[in-house]
Specification:
about 240 residues; alpha/beta; Rossmann fold; 6-stranded mixed beta sheet; 4-stranded antiparallel beta sheet; 9 helices; 10 strands
C-alpha cells in the first residue's frame, strides 16, 4: 500500500542544534502509528516540522505523494493534514465555537464547515454544551477535546496528535484513547506522539522509537503485543 506520509532524510534544527537528525519513516492509509521516546528525543520537533510550524532544514515531507516540505503552514491543513499540538494551545479568550471555526480557516464551503462542526459535537457532546464558553475556562480534559476537535474541522486524512493524554486524569486518558480508536475506525490515519507508552501500544499498528533525534527502532504490531514491556523498558532507559 502506498504511503500517505513519508519523511525522507528529515532534519529540523534550532540554530546549531540538530533536533531531528535525518530520519526516514512512512505511514500508510488507515494506520495508527506511534512515535515514542523520552523527553527531548525530537518527537514534537518532528510533528512541528511536518505541520510547517518549524522549517525543515533538510530532506522532504511527502503527503499523498506530493512534496509539502515548503508549503506555508496555513495551507497544510487544507491539503488534508492537521496537528493537535502538545499543550493543547487553545485560544483561551475565544469561545469553543470560535476555536472550532479557527480550525476551519481556509475552508470556503459553509456546508463542509457545518458538517465538520456536527461531527465534532457528536464525538465530544460536552463541547456542544459549552459552545459559548471561553476556552480558557474549560477543564484540562475539555481543552484537549477542543484541541482535537479544532484539528478535525478540516476533515483531515492524516491527524497528527502530539501528547494528547498529557496531564489528564486517568478516566479522561481512557476516553482520549477511545476517541483515537473511533477516528481510526472512521478512516482517519493517525500519527501519534505519546508518553503513555502502554496506552499507545494498545491502539497503534506500528511504532517508531526515537532517541537523540534519530529513529532507533521500528516495532510492528506483533512485536508490540508480545514485547510491550520490552518497549517500555527500552524507552525508559533512553
Amino acid at each position: 500500500m502506498a504511503s500517505l506520509l513519508a519523511l525522507e532524510n528529515f532534519k529540523v534544527r534550532y540554530g546549531a542544534v540538530e533536533a531531528v537528525r535525518g530520519i526516514n519513516l512512512d505511514i500508510r492509509k488507515g494506520e495508527v502509528v506511534a512515535l515514542l521516546g523520552a523527553n527531548g528525543a525530537g518527537k514534537s520537533s518532528t510533528m512541528n516540522g511536518i505541520a510547517g510550524l518549524e522549517p525543515v532544514a533538510e530532506g522532504r515531507v511527502l503527503f499523498d505523494g506530493q512534496d509539502i516540505t515548503d508549503l506555508p503552514p496555513e495551507e497544510i491543513p487544507v491539503s488534508g493534514l492537521t496537528l493537535s499540538p502538545e499543550g493543547r494551545r487553545v485560544f483561551s479568550t475565544l469561545t469553543v465555537e470560535d476555536n472550532l471555526r479557527m480550525g476551519a480557516y481556509g475552508v470556503r464551503d459553509g456546508a463542509v464547515i457545518d458538517a465538520a462542526r456536527k461531527r465534532v459535537f457528536s464525538l465530544f457532546p460536552i463541547l456542544a454544551k459549552r459552545q459559548g464558553q471561553y476556552a480558557g475556562t474549560l477543564s484540562g480534559g475539555q481543552q484537549q477535546m477542543l484541541a482535537i476537535g479544532r484539528a478535525l474541522m478540516c476533515n483531515p486524512r492524516l491527524l497528527l496528535l502530539d501528547e494528547p493524554s498529557l496531564g489528564l486524569a486517568p478516566l479522561i486518558v481512557e476516553q482520549v484513547f477511545g476517541l483515537i480508536a473511533t477516528l481510526r475506525d472512521q478512516g482517519v490515519t493517525i500519527f501519534l506522539v505519546e508518553q503513555n507508552v502502554a496506552g499507545a501500544l494498545t491502539i497503534a499498528d506500528r511504532a517508531y522509537l526515537m532517541s537523540s533525534g534519530q529513529i532507533t527502532r521500528h516495532v510492528t504490531a506483533d512485536e508490540m503485543r508480545t514485547s510491550g514491556s520490552m518497549v517500555e523498558s527500552y524507552l525508559g532507559s533512553q
